[in-house]
Amino acid sequence: MPLVSVQDAAQILLRGGLVALPTETVYGLAADATNEAAVRRIFAAKNRPSSNPLICHLPDIESILRYAEFVPDWTRAFWPGPLTVLLPHRGSLAPSVTAGSKLCAFRIPDHPLMQQVLNLTGRPLCAPSANTSGRVSPVTAAMVEEDLGSKIDGILDGGECQVGLESTIVEPVTEKSVHILRPGAVTREDLAEKGIQVLEGGTQKSPGQSHAHYAPQMPLVVLSEPDPHGLTAMSFDPGRTLFLSFDRSGPNTLDLTEGRGLLQAARGLYAAFHRASALGVDLLIADNPPAGGIGTAIRDRLLRAATFTGCMRGERLFVRRREAANV
Ligand code: TXA
Ligand code: MG
């Protein structure tokens, strides 16, 4: 495994290389956001469409102001942290970072090693999640290694990511209102508490939200249907199935909360997808977590990853295939 130190990571990035870096959300695959050739290597390594822009990471608001025309004051309540804000940029980043958009996604990550690399390089670092496009975002260095190890110049191991889901992405609409383009650990309720209103709509503006995402390697059924009406019975082998739950244990069942609530479930979701591959199960069946708070983000990721939605009646499973257009 090409594990590197903080100093090596900074040197590799300054030379135009790619390094996977830990953040509090998920591992990112970083490059110098002012170096167009380096940024293009990210798209190649991830097999990511060039139309899907990247988040630009900086160590503080003062550095963001070198690249963004303004930064709303309320962001200070959430940064450093799992929040990404779309802002008009000044045109000094490599063009591929924003895929030609006037807006750039900015974030101040809350991870000591990532902060050290940002400060050592003195550069904005663009970093999508460090996975091949369409795969699950990595939450450990080992997950990065398994997926992208041979295609990148180094991995900085910062342990397991504390949040476990990608950042909340917002687009400011007025001084005190936003659209949420991707739900995350900074919730609608958190924003409201700081006087920021969340307006409906706007999700179609995030290119990365338009296609299948975050999918585990076996079919996933999310039990989000109220009843079997209009669904098709599906046979399955419970012995080769892993059930993901948010409150109950049982045979072949992983309680993602570990009795510690939904924040713990968010932290463990992608690791559970990964574990399902290691166990070699044929099918994942996930309960639908309660909506609201971090539950909204967990639901969002489960539904994006779902092959089917469904419901159970006793031991019987009924499903509906997800429409590609809804993913
Ligand atoms: O937590 C995170 O956000 C992680 C860590 C590494 O920071 N990064 C991450 O990046 O999840 P990525 O590339 O996997 O997801 C970024 C999302 C994509 O859906 C992309 O389309 C959207 O942000 N995005 C980035 N720049 C944008 C822009 N200028 N306009 C609209 N959407 C943008
Ligand atoms: Mg991603």
Task: List its salient traits.
327 residues, alpha/beta, seven-stranded mixed β-sheet, 17 strands, globular, binds threonylcarbamoyladenylate, binds magnesium ion
Describe the protein in words.
- With 327 residues, the chain is of the alpha/beta class.
- Helix content is 25%, strand content 23%.
- The protein contains nine helices and 17 strands.
- The protein has helices at residues 6-14, 36-46, 61-64, 95-98, 112-121, 141-148, 188-193, 262-279, 294-305; strands at residues 19-21, 28-32, 55-57, 83-88, 103-107, 125-126, 154-155, 168-174, 177-182, 197-199, 220-223, 232-234, 241-245, 253-255, 283-287, 308-313, 316-321.
- The strands form two sheets. A ten-stranded mixed β-sheet has the order 7-1-2-6-3-5-4-8-9-10, with helices on both faces. It has a seven-stranded mixed β-sheet with strand order 12-17-16-11-15-13-14, with helices on one face.
- A hairpin with a 2-residue loop joins β8 (168-174) and β9.
- The longest helix is centred in the C-terminal third of the chain and has 18 residues, at 262-279.
